Protein backbone atom coordinates (compact mmCIF):
# COMPACT_ATOMS: atom_id res chain seq x y z
CA UNK A 1 0.00 0.00 0.00
CA UNK A 2 1.29 3.46 -0.84
CA UNK A 3 2.86 5.70 1.81
CA UNK A 4 3.44 2.76 4.15
CA UNK A 5 6.21 0.25 4.86
CA UNK A 6 5.86 -3.27 6.19
CA UNK A 7 9.55 -3.98 6.75
CA UNK A 8 9.95 -4.96 10.41
CA UNK A 9 13.46 -3.54 10.42
CA UNK A 10 12.24 -0.13 9.26
CA UNK A 11 9.22 -0.15 11.54
CA UNK A 12 11.40 -1.08 14.52
CA UNK A 13 13.76 1.79 13.77
CA UNK A 14 10.85 4.24 13.66
CA UNK A 15 9.67 2.99 17.05
CA UNK A 16 13.11 2.88 18.71
CA UNK A 17 14.01 6.37 17.46
CA UNK A 18 10.68 7.65 18.84
CA UNK A 19 9.77 9.04 15.44
CA UNK A 20 6.35 7.53 16.12
CA UNK A 21 4.48 6.89 19.37
CA UNK A 22 4.91 3.13 19.19
CA UNK A 23 3.81 0.08 17.25
CA UNK A 24 0.22 1.29 17.49
CA UNK A 25 0.93 4.82 16.26
CA UNK A 26 -1.99 5.82 13.97
CA UNK A 27 0.48 6.55 11.16
CA UNK A 28 1.90 3.03 11.20
CA UNK A 29 0.78 0.34 8.78
CA UNK A 30 0.48 -2.21 11.59
CA UNK A 31 -2.89 -3.71 12.48
CA UNK A 32 -2.75 -2.04 15.90
CA UNK A 33 -1.92 1.26 14.23
CA UNK A 34 -4.89 0.97 11.88
CA UNK A 35 -7.19 0.16 14.79
CA UNK A 36 -5.96 3.10 16.84
CA UNK A 37 -6.43 5.34 13.81
CA UNK A 38 -10.07 4.24 13.79
CA UNK A 39 -10.19 1.75 10.94
CA UNK A 40 -12.69 -0.76 12.29
CA UNK A 41 -12.72 -4.47 11.49
CA UNK A 42 -15.64 -3.80 9.15
CA UNK A 43 -13.63 -1.23 7.20
CA UNK A 44 -10.59 -3.51 6.93
CA UNK A 45 -12.70 -6.51 5.84
CA UNK A 46 -14.51 -4.47 3.19
CA UNK A 47 -11.21 -3.05 1.95
CA UNK A 48 -9.75 -6.56 1.60
CA UNK A 49 -12.90 -7.69 -0.19
CA UNK A 50 -12.68 -4.84 -2.69
CA UNK A 51 -9.00 -5.23 -3.57
CA UNK A 52 -9.32 -9.02 -3.81
CA UNK A 53 -6.52 -11.58 -3.91
CA UNK A 54 -3.95 -11.91 -6.67
CA UNK A 55 -0.63 -13.62 -7.23
CA UNK A 56 0.69 -10.60 -9.07
CA UNK A 57 2.72 -8.23 -6.93
CA UNK A 58 1.01 -4.86 -6.94
CA UNK A 59 0.74 -1.68 -4.89
CA UNK A 60 -2.66 -0.53 -3.64
CA UNK A 61 -3.38 3.18 -3.40
CA UNK A 62 -4.03 4.12 0.22
CA UNK A 63 -6.87 6.37 -0.99
CA UNK A 64 -8.88 3.19 -1.62
CA UNK A 65 -8.78 2.43 2.09
CA UNK A 66 -9.85 6.00 2.85
CA UNK A 67 -12.73 5.70 0.38
CA UNK A 68 -14.01 2.51 2.02
CA UNK A 69 -13.81 4.19 5.43
CA UNK A 70 -15.83 7.19 4.23
CA UNK A 71 -18.54 5.00 2.74
CA UNK A 72 -18.97 3.00 5.95
CA UNK A 73 -18.54 5.81 8.47
CA UNK A 74 -20.76 8.18 6.52
CA UNK A 75 -23.77 6.02 7.34
CA UNK A 76 -22.93 5.06 10.90
CA UNK A 77 -21.28 8.12 12.49
CA UNK A 78 -23.17 10.75 14.43
CA UNK A 79 -22.56 14.37 13.46
CA UNK A 80 -20.83 16.66 15.92
CA UNK A 81 -20.00 20.36 15.77
CA UNK A 82 -16.35 21.11 16.53
CA UNK A 83 -13.64 23.64 15.67
CA UNK A 84 -9.96 22.75 15.59
CA UNK A 85 -8.36 26.20 15.87
CA UNK A 86 -10.96 28.36 17.65
CA UNK A 87 -11.32 32.11 17.32
CA UNK A 88 -13.89 34.03 19.36
CA UNK A 89 -16.96 35.57 17.72
CA UNK A 90 -19.12 38.12 19.56
CA UNK A 91 -22.73 38.82 18.53
CA UNK A 92 -23.14 42.55 19.18
CA UNK A 93 -26.95 42.62 18.83
CA UNK A 94 -27.51 39.50 20.93
CA UNK A 95 -30.01 41.24 23.21
CA UNK A 96 -32.20 42.23 20.23
CA UNK A 97 -33.56 38.72 19.75
CA UNK A 98 -37.25 38.93 20.75
CA UNK A 99 -37.79 35.20 21.32
CA UNK A 100 -35.05 33.75 23.52
CA UNK A 101 -36.34 30.22 22.94
CA UNK A 102 -34.86 30.49 19.43
CA UNK A 103 -31.42 30.23 21.00
CA UNK A 104 -31.98 26.51 21.67
CA UNK A 105 -31.25 24.80 18.38
CA UNK A 106 -31.99 21.24 17.30
CA UNK A 107 -29.06 19.67 15.46
CA UNK A 108 -29.64 16.36 13.61
CA UNK A 109 -27.37 13.46 14.53
CA UNK A 110 -27.85 11.91 11.09
CA UNK A 111 -28.72 14.63 8.52
CA UNK A 112 -28.97 12.00 5.77
CA UNK A 113 -31.68 10.17 7.74
CA UNK A 114 -33.23 12.08 10.63
CA UNK A 115 -35.41 9.07 11.49
CA UNK A 116 -32.43 6.75 11.93
CA UNK A 117 -32.35 7.15 15.69
CA UNK A 118 -36.05 7.67 16.40
CA UNK A 119 -36.72 10.18 19.17
CA UNK A 120 -32.98 10.56 19.72
CA UNK A 121 -32.30 11.77 16.19
CA UNK A 122 -31.36 15.25 17.41
CA UNK A 123 -29.24 16.88 20.04
CA UNK A 124 -29.44 20.45 21.31
CA UNK A 125 -27.00 23.30 20.92
CA UNK A 126 -27.46 26.68 22.53
CA UNK A 127 -26.47 29.84 20.72
CA UNK A 128 -24.57 32.11 23.11
CA UNK A 129 -23.43 35.70 22.70
CA UNK A 130 -19.85 34.51 22.42
CA UNK A 131 -19.16 31.50 20.24
CA UNK A 132 -16.14 29.98 18.51
CA UNK A 133 -15.43 29.63 14.80
CA UNK A 134 -12.52 27.84 13.19
CA UNK A 135 -9.69 30.21 12.34
CA UNK A 136 -9.52 28.88 8.77
CA UNK A 137 -13.03 30.29 8.24
CA UNK A 138 -11.92 33.87 9.03
CA UNK A 139 -9.92 36.22 6.80
CA UNK A 140 -9.09 39.90 6.96
CA UNK A 141 -9.66 40.24 3.21
CA UNK A 142 -12.38 38.56 1.19
CA UNK A 143 -11.70 36.48 -1.92
CA UNK A 144 -14.00 35.29 -4.69
CA UNK A 145 -13.81 31.60 -3.77
CA UNK A 146 -13.81 32.14 0.00
CA UNK A 147 -17.11 31.46 1.77
CA UNK A 148 -16.05 32.26 5.32
CA UNK A 149 -16.08 35.39 7.49
CA UNK A 150 -14.58 38.63 6.18
CA UNK A 151 -15.32 42.32 6.94
CA UNK A 152 -18.84 43.39 5.85
CA UNK A 153 -19.61 39.91 4.53
CA UNK A 154 -22.60 37.80 5.51
CA UNK A 155 -22.41 34.08 6.28
CA UNK A 156 -24.73 31.62 7.98
CA UNK A 157 -23.92 29.94 11.26
CA UNK A 158 -24.96 26.34 10.68
CA UNK A 159 -28.40 25.48 12.11
CA UNK A 160 -28.67 29.10 13.33
CA UNK A 161 -28.94 32.56 11.70
CA UNK A 162 -27.13 34.74 9.14
CA UNK A 163 -24.24 36.76 10.57
CA UNK A 164 -22.48 39.84 9.18
CA UNK A 165 -18.97 40.69 10.32
CA UNK A 166 -18.56 44.37 11.23
CA UNK A 167 -15.10 44.29 12.79
CA UNK A 168 -12.04 42.07 13.20
CA UNK A 169 -9.55 42.41 16.03
CA UNK A 170 -6.04 41.30 15.13
CA UNK A 171 -2.56 41.03 16.57
CA UNK A 172 0.36 43.01 15.14
CA UNK A 173 1.16 40.00 12.97
CA UNK A 174 -2.30 40.16 11.40
CA UNK A 175 -3.57 37.06 13.21
CA UNK A 176 -7.28 37.41 13.97
CA UNK A 177 -8.12 37.27 17.69
CA UNK A 178 -11.80 38.23 17.69
CA UNK A 179 -14.72 38.60 15.28
CA UNK A 180 -17.53 41.06 16.00
CA UNK A 181 -20.76 41.49 14.08
CA UNK A 182 -24.54 41.53 13.81
CA UNK A 183 -26.96 38.64 13.58
CA UNK A 184 -29.95 38.74 11.22
CA UNK A 185 -32.62 37.51 13.63
CA UNK A 186 -35.28 37.67 10.89
CA UNK A 187 -33.48 34.84 9.09
CA UNK A 188 -34.54 36.41 5.80
CA UNK A 189 -31.35 35.99 3.76
CA UNK A 190 -29.57 32.96 2.35
CA UNK A 191 -25.80 33.54 2.22
CA UNK A 192 -23.61 30.99 0.43
CA UNK A 193 -21.19 30.37 3.27
CA UNK A 194 -22.36 28.02 6.03
CA UNK A 195 -19.94 27.71 8.95
CA UNK A 196 -19.51 25.31 11.85
CA UNK A 197 -19.37 26.83 15.32
CA UNK A 198 -19.57 25.87 18.98
CA UNK A 199 -20.95 27.79 21.99
CA UNK A 200 -18.79 29.56 24.55
CA UNK A 201 -19.11 26.76 27.13
CA UNK A 202 -17.75 24.11 24.77
CA UNK A 203 -15.09 21.93 26.44
CA UNK A 204 -11.56 21.77 25.10
CA UNK A 205 -10.39 18.58 23.42
CA UNK A 206 -7.14 17.55 21.78
CA UNK A 207 -7.43 16.63 18.12
CA UNK A 208 -4.71 14.84 16.16
CA UNK A 209 -4.91 15.16 12.39
CA UNK A 210 -2.84 12.78 10.30
CA UNK A 211 -1.24 12.77 6.88
CA UNK A 212 1.16 10.34 5.21
CA UNK A 213 4.15 9.29 7.29
CA UNK A 214 6.31 9.12 4.15
CA UNK A 215 6.76 11.82 1.54
CA UNK A 216 6.86 9.38 -1.37
CA UNK A 217 4.26 6.72 -2.30
CA UNK A 218 6.86 3.94 -2.46
CA UNK A 219 10.33 3.79 -0.94
CA UNK A 220 12.94 2.80 -3.54
CA UNK A 221 14.50 -0.57 -2.70
CA UNK A 222 18.06 0.60 -3.26
CA UNK A 223 17.92 3.75 -1.11
CA UNK A 224 19.81 3.47 2.16
CA UNK A 225 18.82 6.82 3.68
CA UNK A 226 15.12 5.91 3.65
CA UNK A 227 14.61 7.87 6.88
CA UNK A 228 15.02 11.10 4.91
CA UNK A 229 11.61 10.35 3.40
CA UNK A 230 9.90 10.21 6.81
CA UNK A 231 7.71 13.28 7.34
CA UNK A 232 7.51 13.22 11.13
CA UNK A 233 6.77 16.96 11.33
CA UNK A 234 3.78 17.28 9.00
CA UNK A 235 2.35 13.77 9.30
CA UNK A 236 0.81 14.57 12.69
CA UNK A 237 -0.67 17.95 13.54
CA UNK A 238 -1.97 18.43 17.08
CA UNK A 239 -4.72 20.90 17.96
CA UNK A 240 -4.60 20.97 21.76
CA UNK A 241 -7.20 23.75 22.15
CA UNK A 242 -9.90 22.42 19.85
CA UNK A 243 -13.48 22.65 21.08
CA UNK A 244 -16.49 20.36 20.79
CA UNK A 245 -20.12 21.18 21.47
CA UNK A 246 -21.05 20.31 25.08
CA UNK A 247 -23.92 17.86 24.57
CA UNK A 248 -22.06 15.84 21.95
CA UNK A 249 -19.01 15.80 24.21
CA UNK A 250 -21.08 14.31 27.01
CA UNK A 251 -22.80 11.69 24.85
CA UNK A 252 -20.31 10.62 22.17
CA UNK A 253 -16.86 10.58 23.76
CA UNK A 254 -16.53 6.81 23.35
CA UNK A 255 -17.64 6.41 19.74
CA UNK A 256 -16.57 7.38 16.23
CA UNK A 257 -18.11 10.70 15.19
CA UNK A 258 -18.06 13.04 12.23
CA UNK A 259 -16.86 16.55 12.98
CA UNK A 260 -19.05 18.45 10.54
CA UNK A 261 -17.17 19.91 7.56
CA UNK A 262 -13.91 18.35 8.81
CA UNK A 263 -13.79 14.56 8.90
CA UNK A 264 -14.26 11.37 10.92
CA UNK A 265 -12.66 11.04 14.34
CA UNK A 266 -12.21 8.35 16.98
CA UNK A 267 -11.40 8.76 20.70
CA UNK A 268 -7.78 7.89 21.48
CA UNK A 269 -6.42 5.80 24.34
CA UNK A 270 -4.52 8.87 25.60
CA UNK A 271 -7.81 10.44 26.68
CA UNK A 272 -8.10 11.30 30.35
CA UNK A 273 -10.96 12.26 32.64
CA UNK A 274 -10.05 15.93 32.26
CA UNK A 275 -9.34 16.03 28.53
CA UNK A 276 -10.43 13.89 25.62
CA UNK A 277 -8.19 13.12 22.66
CA UNK A 278 -9.51 12.39 19.17
CA UNK A 279 -7.65 10.93 16.18
CA UNK A 280 -8.67 11.78 12.65
CA UNK A 281 -9.54 8.66 10.66
CA UNK A 282 -10.04 10.32 7.27
CA UNK A 283 -10.92 13.76 5.99
CA UNK A 284 -14.48 14.36 4.95
CA UNK A 285 -13.81 14.62 1.22
CA UNK A 286 -11.61 12.58 -1.05
CA UNK A 287 -8.82 14.74 -2.44
CA UNK A 288 -9.05 17.27 0.38
CA UNK A 289 -5.83 15.93 1.87
CA UNK A 290 -5.75 14.08 5.15
CA UNK A 291 -4.58 17.19 6.89
CA UNK A 292 -7.59 19.37 7.67
CA UNK A 293 -7.75 23.13 7.94
CA UNK A 294 -6.19 25.87 5.83
CA UNK A 295 -2.69 25.75 7.28
CA UNK A 296 -2.70 21.98 7.37
CA UNK A 297 -3.78 21.70 3.75
CA UNK A 298 -1.04 24.13 2.75
CA UNK A 299 1.43 21.96 4.62
CA UNK A 300 0.13 18.87 2.87
CA UNK A 301 0.40 20.56 -0.54
CA UNK A 302 3.94 21.58 0.28
CA UNK A 303 4.72 18.02 1.29
CA UNK A 304 3.38 16.72 -2.01
CA UNK A 305 5.54 19.19 -3.95
CA UNK A 306 8.55 18.17 -1.90
CA UNK A 307 7.73 14.53 -2.58
CA UNK A 308 7.56 15.17 -6.33
CA UNK A 309 10.91 16.93 -6.25
CA UNK A 310 12.44 14.10 -4.23
CA UNK A 311 11.07 11.51 -6.65
CA UNK A 312 12.53 13.44 -9.59
CA UNK A 313 15.89 13.68 -7.83
CA UNK A 314 15.79 9.94 -7.10
CA UNK A 315 15.05 9.18 -10.74
CA UNK A 316 17.98 11.32 -11.88
CA UNK A 317 20.32 9.62 -9.41
CA UNK A 318 19.13 6.22 -10.57
CA UNK A 319 19.72 7.13 -14.22
CA UNK A 320 23.32 8.07 -13.41
CA UNK A 321 24.05 4.63 -11.98
CA UNK A 322 25.94 2.33 -14.33
CA UNK A 323 24.25 -1.08 -14.84
CA UNK A 324 27.55 -2.81 -14.07
CA UNK A 325 27.66 -1.12 -10.65
CA UNK A 326 24.00 -1.23 -9.63
CA UNK A 327 24.16 -4.53 -7.73
CA UNK A 328 27.60 -3.81 -6.30
CA UNK A 329 25.92 -1.01 -4.34
CA UNK A 330 24.04 -3.68 -2.38
CA UNK A 331 26.75 -5.60 -0.46
CA UNK A 332 24.18 -6.66 2.12
CA UNK A 333 22.52 -8.77 -0.62
CA UNK A 334 25.25 -9.83 -3.05
CA UNK A 335 28.88 -10.86 -2.61
CA UNK A 336 30.24 -12.02 -5.99
CA UNK A 337 29.66 -10.76 -9.53
CA UNK A 338 30.50 -11.66 -13.12
CA UNK A 339 32.30 -9.40 -15.60
CA UNK A 340 29.08 -7.50 -16.42
CA UNK A 341 28.33 -6.80 -12.76
CA UNK A 342 25.58 -9.41 -12.51
CA UNK A 343 25.51 -11.14 -9.08
CA UNK A 344 26.55 -14.79 -8.98
CA UNK A 345 26.50 -15.31 -5.20
CA UNK A 346 24.58 -13.76 -2.33
CA UNK A 347 26.12 -11.98 0.66
CA UNK A 348 26.75 -15.23 2.58
CA UNK A 349 28.47 -16.90 -0.39
CA UNK A 350 25.61 -19.06 -1.65
CA UNK A 351 25.38 -19.36 -5.43
CA UNK A 352 22.31 -17.77 -6.97
CA UNK A 353 19.92 -19.99 -8.90
CA UNK A 354 19.44 -19.65 -12.63
CA UNK A 355 15.97 -18.20 -12.09
CA UNK A 356 17.30 -15.60 -9.63
CA UNK A 357 20.01 -14.51 -12.06
CA UNK A 358 17.44 -14.28 -14.84
CA UNK A 359 15.33 -11.85 -12.80
CA UNK A 360 18.37 -9.77 -11.90
CA UNK A 361 19.37 -9.66 -15.56
CA UNK A 362 15.99 -8.13 -16.42
CA UNK A 363 16.53 -5.45 -13.78
CA UNK A 364 19.99 -4.77 -15.16
CA UNK A 365 18.63 -4.41 -18.71
CA UNK A 366 16.08 -1.86 -17.50
CA UNK A 367 18.82 0.08 -15.75
CA UNK A 368 20.92 0.02 -18.92
CA UNK A 369 18.12 1.72 -20.84
CA UNK A 370 17.82 4.41 -18.17
CA UNK A 371 21.57 4.93 -18.05
CA UNK A 372 21.85 5.12 -21.84
CA UNK A 373 19.10 7.77 -21.89
CA UNK A 374 20.98 9.75 -19.25
CA UNK A 375 24.24 9.58 -21.23
CA UNK A 376 22.41 10.70 -24.37
CA UNK A 377 20.99 13.74 -22.53
CA UNK A 378 24.43 14.65 -21.20
CA UNK A 379 25.96 14.52 -24.67
CA UNK A 380 23.13 16.60 -26.10
Describe the structure.
There is one protein chain. The chain has 380 residues and is of the alpha+beta class. It is 27% helix and 24% strand. The protein contains seven helices and 18 strands. The strands form four sheets. The chain has a seven-stranded mixed β-sheet. Helix 3 (41-51) packs across helix 4 and helix 6 crosses helix 7 (354-379). It is elongated and about 90 Å long. 29% of the residues are buried. InterPro entries: Gln/Glu-tRNA_Ligase, Glu/Gln-tRNA-synth_Ib_cat-dom, Glu/Gln-tRNA-synth_Ib_codon-bd, Glu_tRNA_lig_a-bdl, Rbsml_bL25/Gln-tRNA_synth_N, Ribosomal_bL25/Gln-tRNA_synth, tRNA-synt_1c_C2. One of its GO terms (molecular function) is glutamine-tRNA ligase activity. Residues 1-70 form the Glutamyl/glutaminyl-tRNA synthetase class Ib catalytic domain. Keywords: Aminoacyl-tRNA synthetase, ATP-binding, Ligase, Nucleotide-binding, Protein biosynthesis. Residues 338-380 are annotated as: Disordered.
Amino acid sequence: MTYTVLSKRKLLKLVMSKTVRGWDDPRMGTLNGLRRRGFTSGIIKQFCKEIGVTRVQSTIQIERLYSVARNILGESSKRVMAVLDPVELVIENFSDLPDKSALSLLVPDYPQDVDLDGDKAYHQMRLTQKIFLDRTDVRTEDLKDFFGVAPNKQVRLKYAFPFTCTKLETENSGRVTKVLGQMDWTNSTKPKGVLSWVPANSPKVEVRVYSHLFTVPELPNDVKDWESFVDSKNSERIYDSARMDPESYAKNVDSIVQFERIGYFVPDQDSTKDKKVFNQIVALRDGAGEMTGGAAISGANASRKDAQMQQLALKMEKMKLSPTDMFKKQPELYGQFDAEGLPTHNAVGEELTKNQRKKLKKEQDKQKKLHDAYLADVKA
